[in-house]
Design a protein that fits this description.
The chain has 468 residues and is an alpha/beta fold. Helices cover 31% and strands 16% of the residues. The protein folds into 3 domains: 8-163 and 240-263, Aconitase, domain 3; 167-238 and 270-286, Aconitase, Domain 2 (3-Layer(aba) Sandwich); 290-465, Aconitase, domain 3 (2-Layer Sandwich), CATH 3.30.499.10. The strands form 5 sheets. The protein has a 5-stranded parallel beta sheet with strand order 5-4-3-6-7, with helices on both faces. The chain has a 4-stranded parallel beta sheet with strand order 11-10-9-12. Strands 16-15-17-18 form a 4-stranded parallel beta sheet, covered by helices on one side. Helix 2 (41-50) crosses helix 5 (149-158) and helix 6 runs parallel beside helix 8.
Length: 468
């Protein structure tokens, strides 16, 4: 074994190499495979056509989330395509002996929420799913990334995947987060600096005091958004915060297995002297509550600032102007005070209990604005129960909000929760592409605090003005 310093990424990647292909990709063993109703049916059909079984069904976990309704989940799903996909997931899971949490199951929820909260996600693992935001699990010191349908079939059949090894990037954020600044703001700030393609070809390690001080929920938000800067994935070294979060969860190691696992997990950190292909440094003090104004997550700015001008742009000027035209915005306009129509809190980015605590901290003692339609959607039934147990639901109802049932909801418009044409939605999800939340919808990505401030005022509002 080499004594050469290794990064966290190298340690996890190298530990999972089954075979190295000369001048080609590595064959990686996959510890955990999550599947849902959208990308798995064709993969299972491929297995059937080849008469191939699932190699390790106990390492695959199925949950329904993408196109599930968020109201009346006890009723038959009305959309025929969605109903067929949900049925296929249930039948395929039963056929191959895969754990399945469908609608009505108390463990059901968004795949990247239920994995961690059940202790399925553990440090040092390789994790894949037919979903781009699988990077969420990197918050635990995992190599986690999204895969395509053919790769889903490959993992089901062999528990391995072929991948070229990405380059390595480290992003350090020093200092601490200021008033009203959340992990969502930190990652939106980084993406605004790097652009939506600035980390293409890299796997990112997030390091420094700002990330070390974050809760696991916050770290999951950051790693979830890592692919929005073009990265293959993101990860944060596990520490006491990680271990305390995992300890006691249903599928976490117990007894002697816990002791042994903990000893290994504590080695999962970048060695002193390790070299990254590229490194960036930012200051927490420079970050304020963020909001996007365009049609990719890199088009973000501090909430008190003005929309940038196209001056100095060359190749990107036309697409920049097209983006602003789609959004109905002009250069050099302030975002503060702009009227909004919808607010969405939820998704695999901000659908955890910490996010609803933050939302409720602004909403408490206030009323929802009459011009706002709000969709408050927990990431799982566990989160839904926490909202009720902690009195957050009472605060929401008093303020005029309703709590919906778990699911991906208005993140991607694959269900009934679609933003109408031309309407503005302050969304705590991860993407603001044209039509992402519905044909013609205009999405403004923000934190739960910014979303709450907009929900109670009806306009884009700096949450710092509402924090006592």
């Amino acid at each position: 074994m080499s004594n050469k310093p290794q990064t966290l990424f190298d340690k996890v990647w190298d530990a999972h190499i089954v075979k190295q292909v000369a001048d080609g990709p590595d064959v990686l063993f996959i510890d955990r495979h999550f599947i849902h109703e959208v990308t798995s049916p064709v993969a299972f059909l491929g297995l059937k056509n080849r008469n191939v079984d699932v190699m390790f069904p106990e390492k695959t976990f199925a949950t329904a989330d993408h196109n599930t309704p968020t109201i009346n989940q006890h009723l038959p799903v009305a959309d025929v395509l969605s109903a067929n996909q949900l049925k296929a997931l249930e039948e395929n899971s039963a056929k191959y002996g895969i754990s399945h949490w469908g609608l009505g199951n108390p463990k059901n929820g968004i795949v990247h929420v239920v994995g961690p909260e059940n202790g399925i996600t553990l440090p040092g693992m390789t994790i894949v799913c037919g979903d781009s935001h699988t990077s969420t699990h990197g918050a635990f010191g995992c190599i986690a990334f999204g895969i395509g349908t053919s790769e889903v079939e490959m993992v089901l059949a062999s528990q391995c995947i072929m991948q070229p090894k990405p380059k390595k990037m480290r992003i350090n954020v020093h200092g601490s987060m200021g008033k009203g600044v959340t992990p969502k703001d930190v990652v939106l700030y980084i993406i605004s600096k790097l652009t939506a393609a600035g980390a293409t070809g890299y796997f990112v390690e997030f390091a420094g005091p700002v990330f070390e001080e974050m809760s696991m929920e916050g770290r999951m938000t950051v790693c979830n958004m890592s692919i929005e800067m073009g990265a293959r994935g993101g990860m944060i070294a596990p520490d006491e915060t990680t271990f305390n979060y995992i300890n006691g969860r249903e599928k976490a190691p117990k007894g002697e297995a816990w002791v042994n696992s903990l000893a290994y997990w504590k080695t999962l950190k970048t060695d002193e002297g390790s070299v990254f292909d590229i490194e960036y440094n930012y200051e927490g003090a420079d970050i304020e509550p963020m909001i996007t104004y365009g049609t990719n997550p890199g088009m973000g700015m501090g909430i008190s600032q003005r929309i940038p001008t196209a001056e100095g742009m060359e190749s990107g000027k036309v697409s920049y102007e097209k983006s602003l035209s789609y959004m109905g915005f002009d250069e050099d306009q302030p975002m503060l005070g702009k009227k909004i129509d919808y607010v969405f809190i939820g998704s695999c980015t901000n659908g955890r209990i910490e996010d609803f605590r933050a939302f409720a901290s602004i909403v408490k003692g206030r009323k929802k604005a009459d011009n706002v339609t709000a969709w408050v959607v927990p990431g799982s039934h566990v989160v839904e129960q926490q909202i009720k147990d902690e009195g957050i639901l009472d605060i929401l109802i008093e303020a005029g909000f309703e709590l919906r049932q778990p699911g991906c909801s208005a993140c991607l418009a694959m269900n009934d929760d679609k933003i109408p044409v031309g309407k503005y939605a302050v969304s705590t999800s991860n993407r603001n592409f044209e039509g992402r939340q519905g044909p013609g919808a205009r999405t403004l990505l923000a934190s739960p605090l910014v979303a709450a401030a907009a929900a109670v005022t009806g306009i884009i509002t700096d949450p710092r003005t509402l924090i006592g």
